Amino acid sequence: MMQKQLVSIFLILLCVYSAHCQKFAPKTGKCLVFIGQDLSATGGLDNYSQGYSDHFETPAGVTVYTNLSPGAESYGYYNKGLDGLETKANWGAGDSWANAYLQDSTYTKSALAIGLSLVNHEKKIGKGLHDDLITELGTWIKSIKRPVFLRIGYEFDGWDWNHYQRKPYLKAWERIHTIFKKLQVDNVALVWQSKGTGSDQKILEAWYPGDALVDWCAYSYFGSPDTEMIHFARKHKKPVFIAEATPLRQSENLYFETDLKKENMGPKIWKEWFEPFFATLEQNADVIKAFSYINADWSSQPMWITNPVFQKVDGRLQVNEYIRKKWKAEMEKERYLNAEDISNRFTK
């Protein structure tokens, strides 16, 4: 009973502290820190002990993935639907398993950001053919009694890899929203995420599910900031979640090595990527209220070793002493909220 009461207070306070009562958004000038996107990247667990939480403060939230795409295959893994929540899944980019966090003492005060893939199934979802999975997902989210940021059909405009069709995508989003509302799933914020660059205001407006259905706008930040989504979110009075971020050095379509294992690259990478990233957060503190850093060695994961964008990227903060110290100093600033910071709201 006490845990349920604390969670209820937490959800209320997160709303009260926001200027526009934006769901789970901290007040202006504060920013929730999430870490992703696999168990080895986050660490702090018995069988995954060389990740972020083994070197830095436990983050306000962690990123996991699941799907409404039963039967889909990725690097030898076949989806059953809702994989990666109560069961461990690996689609070629590290182990993903939400329950590992929920059952571990390290993350008792952390929220979850869930990437929900709809790939090749948006039409079926819109027609009600996956209502059982949506109901199961909503029931599970409601049962875990902690804030969940659900990124429905994340990177909707990543047409080269997600292949979403606009009208079915929007119908699928509406279907999920309707079922969650019927189930009274109050501890979830629905997050609408673009790929980060290349979509102008016209495209964003065309793909937007609507103010009544979206709690947060979001985008991926790899090579450069995306002013389009920031502008869009301000216009619609929504908070922004940089839902995926990792250091990527590029010049147009050329991608360069970003390997934090190489100590001598630390100062250069910090200056070229981290400084602009934190400047983006600072300059847009009125709207950017959460980010998730992908603390992974992309170059070692099957999904990325042949990918020209990420095959030379190792973004693990802890493996570079220069980066580790700079990151730790940045995270000590009052604006960044970790697990302890958001838990303290219980007693305020």
Provide structural commentary.
- The chain is an alpha/beta fold and 348 residues long.
- It has one domain: TIM Barrel, CATH 3.20.20.
- It contains eleven helices and 17 strands.
- The longest helix has 18 residues, at 166-183.
Brief overview:
By secondary structure, the protein is α/β, with parallel strands linked by helices.
* CATH hierarchy, class: Alpha Beta
Output the CATH topology: TIM Barrel
CATH architecture, please?
Answer: Alpha-Beta Barrel
Q: Assign the CATH superfamily.
A: Glycosidases
End-to-end gap: 20 Å
Count of distinct strands = 17
Strand content: 15-25%
> The biggest beta sheet, please?
8 strands, parallel, barrel
Sequence stretches where pLDDT stays below 50 over 5 or more residues:
12-20
User: Reading side by side through the largest sheet, how are the strands ordered?
Assistant: 1-2-7-8-9-10-11-15
Q: Helices and strands: which structural class?
A: alpha/beta
The whole-angstrom Rg is 19 Å
Describe the structure using short key phrases:
348 residues, alpha/beta, TIM Barrel, eight-stranded parallel barrel, 17 strands, globular
